[in-house]
Design brief:
Length: 240
């Protein structure tokens, strides 16, 4: 059964007008977006809209709401609110990513607010929210690794190398590192990475800084340490 939302009334408009906080938040369902609400938001572009929905197709309702906001010429930031009651971490992650990710990729929101009241710790919920933002290229908050799945052209132990590089760099927040099996597709697939580790020949690795190859044909047994040295040389490394 759909919830019935209270109307946005005159008293709320008065409270919004006299609120002197630097940032104001307004929880707002699509069904409450009447003329009074739109007029109040037009008067207060500093108000952040926390868009909420209990619709069976909430992504569709969010799209309709944001379309109306755009049509009315409102410039208020929009944060998508998603309430869950999940006990399984993967279920929570999949549902949140599918709903919120679609809106982020289409550029239809400025942020997300994920709330779960099931048996999942707040740390996991926060990590999921930040992961969705990072996947949507909205906010980078942790080290990101771009890797190929490996194929017949991969001439080194890809999984072992990924583990070594992660162990040495996972604390470097905001850095993107490409780990590619071969020179054929590697540089193109990691084009937006800050640093790249690419198989060059049997037992040999080349290192990249963005799209530029910095060191070629390094012995595999030295390559991870040389990658760390390259990151340090460019001022992007901090000790754990």
């Amino acid at each position: 059964m759909n919830n019935v939302y209270p109307a946005f009334n005159y008293q709320q408009m008065i409270e919004l007008h006299h609120n002197n906080a630097a940032i104001k938040f307004l929880f707002l369902p699509y069904m409450a977006m009447g003329e009074e609400v739109i007029a109040a938001l037009r008067m207060h572009p500093e108000v952040v809209i926390i868009a909420q929905s209990n619709h069976d197709n909430r992504v569709g309702e969010y799209r309709g709401m944001i379309q109306e906001i755009m049509t009315e010429g409102l410039t208020n930031p929009v944060v998508i609110f998603m309430f869950q009651n999940e006990n399984d971490k993967e279920d929570m992650q999949l549902k949140a990513a599918a709903d919120m990710g679609a809106l982020i990729f289409d550029g239809l929101c400025d942020g997300i607010f994920l709330l779960n009241q099931g048996k999942i710790g707040i740390e996991e919920v926060d990590a999921t929210a930040f992961g969705i933002l990072q996947a949507g290229r909205v906010r980078t908050s942790k080290t990101e690794y771009i890797s190929c799945p490996g194929c017949g052209r991969t001439l080194y132990d890809l999984q072992d190398t990924i583990a070594k590089i992660k162990n040495a760099t996972s604390h470097l927040k905001g850095l993107k590192i490409g780990i590619m099996g071969c020179i054929v597709n590697g540089p193109g697939e990691m084009a937006d990475a800050d640093y790249g580790y690419v198989g060059a020949a049997r037992g040999k690795v080349s290192l990249y800084k963005k799209k530029e190859c910095i060191e070629k044909n390094i012995p595999e047994e030295e390559a991870v340490n040389r990658l760390i040295d390259l990151i340090k040389k460019n001022g992007d490394y901090t000790e754990k």
